[in-house]
Please model this.
Amino acid sequence: MDHFEYIAGRLRCEGVDLVEVADRFGTPLYIYSAQTLRDHFHRVQQAFGKLNARVCFSVKSCQNLSILRLLKDEGASFDIVSGGELSRVLEVGAAPSGVVFAGVGKTDEEIEAGLRAGIGWFNVESEAELENLACIAARMGRTARAALRVNPDVDPHTHVYTTTGKRETKFGVDVERARNVFIQFRGRAGLDLCGLHLHIGSPVNQVEPYVEAVQRALQLVERLRGDGVSIRAINIGGGFGAHYNGSEAPPASAYADRIVPLLDGQGLEVLIEPGRSISANAGVLLGRTLYTKASGDRQFVIVDAAITELIRPALYGSFHFAWPVVPRGGLVPPRRAADVRSAGDVLVDIVGPVCESGDFLAKDRWLPPVERGDLICIFTTGAYGFVMSSQYNSRPRAAEVLVDGGEVELIRRRETYDDLVAAERMGD
Model:
């Protein structure tokens, strides 16, 4: 699953003692395992190897330049959703031809930047966006290669906020309308509309929704080819699961075993956009205990990490396993699940200092006794962790560290109070 493990009663990352890392860089602190990132990327790459699929890592899941550079060096292409993310992947030297640009609200400036850079694909979400893309590309003397995002109306059985392939979402075009869209824009100057894009949601821990979505997409491809429309590529999106509560996510091979036979021999370039399945279990968040307290029948462990570092539990009701970095009594968890309990454990909520009742990282968890100064690890935070962090309550954002074997590298310094106000000092 990852390279974080308890050895002699202490949590380590690739053999590096995380107490020492926290003492060196402070808390709250994000720590990533380079080997986990490599392992997870290559598992996806190998699983879909028969299709020679282009693996486009989803930058929105984990955007640090050092991590993007590591994955680029391993052979990753990139899935972006903003001009800022385009800037990041270009800065690390990614080949623009391997970049796919998604998102429902691309600005004219972002489209122009993508065209100037020569990105490989625009994933387009509406007729209005296609019209705008074609006009901008023609004005610039370019041709934009595009894939139409199609909603197959498949239920991915995930949180409503991260369900994106149903008819009622803001994303994409209904599969019933898609055929007419391709015919409408066929041969349009400045536009090469030749691909389908699917993304049904995230995290999706069942394979069947992908099978259903791909089957519906292939039916559309067959009809379009019958209309004389050239469809040369299919992007099946991402959303593959990660292990938050034990080992609930299928391996990449389980998805591929069902999807690859459907696409093999179809004469289509295949792209995939994994993010969470590569980076989630590659990162943890450390917080240091400030206080413990009882209030009514509730016990609280108050740490220096908060919703400003990890908003997912408050936003989605997401589960992240939490455990002391050095548990008292050597109580190493047998598995990372909500119901882990040992003799002497205390039922607690792990909360932060932010002035919101929704500022919690974990609720109703059985933990070994915790005291002021103890480090608490929040697991599976490598995806949609730091990228969703904020400066609410004027809290400087956390530092990020990458562990690679015995090497420990600071890849983002901790923000300072000066950083908080730098953009507001208009006279400087």
Remarks:
- The chain has a mean pLDDT of 93.
- The chain has two domains: 4-32+280-424, 35-275.
- The two ends are 49 Å apart (CA to CA).
